[in-house]
Design a protein that fits this description.
By secondary structure, the protein is of the alpha/beta class. The chain starts with 5 loop residues before the first strand and ends in a 7-residue tail after the last helix. The relative contact order is 0.11. It is globular and about 50 Å long. The protein is built from 13 helices and twelve strands. The structure holds nicotinamide-adenine-dinucleotide. The site of nicotinamide-adenine-dinucleotide (NAD) has 29 residues, from α1, α3 and β9. The site of nicotinamide-adenine-dinucleotide has 29 residues, from α1, α3 and β9.
């Protein structure tokens, strides 16, 4: 067993992937999630992980009720959807101590403000990942593909734990780099998600269908160029062409197939989406510089309207 205990708060698709790989690398990992059935399945049968044709069950600790908690953790990975960040930290506050470092690889940029209410800025580790995972049902994830994690500390200071987190992830076969380019990478992913997630969610078309339609490309270009404009005001050298190139690559019929981005999946399942941490957060940044973002404003309003409509009927559906 290695020297520091790790908690994962929000043990869905990604939380289970990162948590189980760290556990298998010898770390003392505990999963926390509010989804009782999921947690009970993991407690009784272990976490089922499918990778290609192989499947295994991993006997990892999992809990739901924060009232039973007595332990605090040196490192917490937060893997809820962005809209649940604040609730999760409030609910699981007992596992946070003054020493705790919190790692967030969540999509969007709104999370940091919520996290800083609970964790000092010099203990927040932000990053981005190109790994993916799917949650098929209680206690069951499917992982695949290669990827990368880039991490950095929000505020400069002692980087000892940042290095230890990178080392732990690498030991867990999650390729990780501490990089000063992390903020640029976060904004590139933000622009990418702001475009592909919204356009697929509004049209209900898959990635390939949007990326191979001239109007889809035109809409995504409008969104991405606006995000670049905001980034430049923040001295982040976001290159819209670079993001468009990646969007075209993932939209290529050979690679995209019929992939449904998470925002489209959320809309189809009538769940709240991450729109506020993606396009919503971009609009909030733009307001600070008095910039008008018509493409982002339009898709933001369309998704919010759609969500508000179905959530009025089903206000508590949070998961598949
Ligand atoms: P998910 O919906 O599969 O998992 C989120 C989990 O959080 C759920 O199990 C849910 O029950 C739990 N949760 C909700 N509220 C909670 C609370 N108050 N306390 C504790 N747990 C709570 O989501 P995901 O796909 O794993 O995504 C997590 C984050 O990672 C998102 O920001 C997403 O954009 C990002 N991301 C996902 C992928 C992917 O392939 N799935 C890839 C890159 C980044």
């Amino acid at each position: 067993m290695t020297d520091f205990p790790i908690a994962v708060i929000g043990a869905g698709a990604m939380g289970c992937r990162f948590g189980s790989q760290l556990f298998e690398a010898g770390y003392d990992v505990t999963l926390y999630d509010v989804w009782k059935e999921h947690v009970e399945t993991i407690q009784k049968q272990g976490l089922k992980v499918k990778r290609g044709e192989s499947e295994k069950r991993i006997p990892i600790k999992a809990y739901d009720n924060p009232c039973k908690l007595t332990q605090v953790y040196d490192v917490i990975f937060l893997f809820t959807k962005s809209q649940h960040t604040e609730d999760a930290l409030r609910q699981y506050q007992k596992v946070i101590s003054a020493k705790t470092h919190l790692v967030t690889l969540q999509n969007g940029i709104g999370n940091q403000e919520a996290i800083s209410k609970y964790i000092d800025q010099d203990k927040i580790i932000v990053g981005t990942t190109t790994y993916s995972s799917d949650l098929h049902g209680p206690g069951f994830i499917e992982v695949g593909g290669s990827g990368e994690v880039l991490i950095t500390q929000v505020q400069k200071g002692d980087t000892g734990m940042l290095e230890k987190v990178a080392e732990a992830l690498n030991k867990a076969s999650i390729q990780t780099r501490v990089s000063s380019n992390t903020i640029l990478a976060i904004w590139e992913k933000l622009a990418f998600n702001a475009a592909i997630n919204t356009v697929t969610a509004v049209t209900r078309l898959a990635t390939g269908q949007v990326g191979n339609h001239l109007r889809g490309i035109e809409l995504m270009r409008g969104i991405v160029e606006e995000v670049a404009q905001v980034a430049h005001h923040l001295d982040i050298p976001l290159d819209a062409e670079n993001v468009m190139k990646k969007l075209k690559e993932v939209s290529h019929p050979d690679s995209a197939g019929d992939h449904l981005p998470s925002m489209l999946q959320d809309v189809l399942k009538k769940r709240r989406t991450e729109i506020d941490a993606i396009n919503g957060a971009i609009l909030r940044e733009a307001e600070k510089f008095n910039i008008n973002l018509p493409y982002n404003r339009t898709v933001y309003n369309l998704i919010r309207m759609t969500e508000d409509h179905y959530l009025q009927q089903e206000t508590h559906r949070l998961r598949p």
